[in-house]
User: What shape does this take?
Amino acid sequence: MTLTPDLNTVQDIYARDGVVLLKGVLSQDWLAKLRQAVDDETAKGDRYFAYKNMREHPGVFQDYCLTSDIGQRVAEVAGSPWTSLIYDQIFAKEPGTKTQTGWHTDQPYWPVAGPIMTMWIALDPVDPDNGALEFVRGSHAWGAKYRPFKTDQLGAFLHYLEEGNPDYVDMPDFEANRSDYDIFHYPLMEPGDALAFDGMTVHSAMGNRTSTRLRRGYAIRFAVEGATYEPRDAVTEWLHDDSLRPGDAFAGGRFPMIYKAA
Ligand SMILES: O=C(O)CCC(=O)C(=O)O
Assistant: This one.
């Protein structure tokens, strides 16, 4: 894969905005295989948030994570000598899904301190009609740790978690005060494009107001140099690994290093 725009520009945008669009990350072959694998998985009947950690089982998701060039791409964008896998997730927003995925940051839900990156790969054309992701530009650099919260199966806010934890602050109401923030989205992602975004970037996803256009996204979460294991509580328990100790580099055990610079 050659990066469009070039790597220096990509790194600059990522550092400035906390998110960058990468064109043509998937080959046609991986696109076809991942689409099929997503369809097979979603045919099992769960919805939206339920499809997680497929890569822990043999199959297309595991093959993609372990054998494709995605780990190297993450390392390049992050400027890191290595990449490890945290977990993967399908976001299939069906036609007619009115719910907007609430504004949130990802890091508070995972047992990681330090830099992490999601690659959110579009398997369909994605635009504001069928569920474009929205970002608050530069919010990854604010240093704000927003309290995690529970959502319903479609991503709507239900209630806060860790209410007594002084490390977190409640999230401002970005939706009600949109004009106070630099909120943006990419007008069109083509199948095989990816959004690389920081674990602290505030983001949400629009509803899918089409009646026919499924919006399939495949998100993979990665740790890079500087990330450490930080198991916290019930919120992150689903991703714990007792073979790592708090403070260890976030690689090994359940979280294989999938790329290391020579
Ligand atoms: O794809 C979506 O609908 C939401 C994605 C998201 O919030 C995430 O990847 O963290």
Notes: The two ends are 19 Å apart (CA to CA). Residues 5 and 22 are 8 Å apart (CA to CA). Residues 28-42 form the longest helix (15 residues).
